[in-house]
Amino acid sequence: MRLPLALAPVVPRIAASAGIPLRLDRPQPTLTFDDGPHPEGTPRVLDALDDAGAKAIFFLIGEQVERYPDVAAQIERRGHEIAIHGYRHRVQLRLSADAIRDDLERAVEVIGRVRFHRPPLGIYSGAGLAAVRERGLQPLLWSRWGRDWRKFTTPQRIAARATRTLGPGDVILLHDADHYSSQDSWQRTLAALPEILGALQPTGSGSGSTSTGASAFSQP
Predict the structure, then answer these.
(1) Which of 178, 182, 185, 201 has its CA 20 to 30 A from that of 150?
(2) pTM score, whole prediction
(3) Which of 80, 170, 175, 176 is labelled catalytic?
(4) Distance, CA of 165 to CA of 210 (rounded, Å)
């Protein structure tokens, strides 16, 4: 039985068979943040990244960019990469092919022409994946996540999950916003960032550091 494409975020062989990367061909892990921009969470995350000299990819939601254009502009101005997470935060499996294409076009119009795309919840439908590729965007999921959207998680758990067996090319999923998750979840992510960034240091001794010298301290 063929497993559904929707399981690609948690079943690597499905992602591989669909040609959806979970990692990037880089010598270091890459931090990514979904669901922004957020008027409080995004600037605080940007400050933490600046303090560490780290860069990240921010997967933005078009409707939030319209609400907070100055915050979205800050991301690029401070040297990070912007990517598309959709115009609205809707699961593709619940949408028609036309609705998916419309959402994608609106996102491109608001966010701009970018390199990467990641769907809400990481769930692609067949029509959604085809639309993204037809638009010339590269789908990208993740290989590590902090599950930081959960209401009862802690910064310690977020950091431990995000950095477990971390290696070169890993893509780490975090969130700088709570628009679509538990209230103030970004605050727990922010509290977890020092430990995560420490694990990404070339000489880091955190629980997630590796002997490869992997680092996210370069342009994405």
Answers:
(1) 201
(2) 0.91
(3) 175
(4) 7
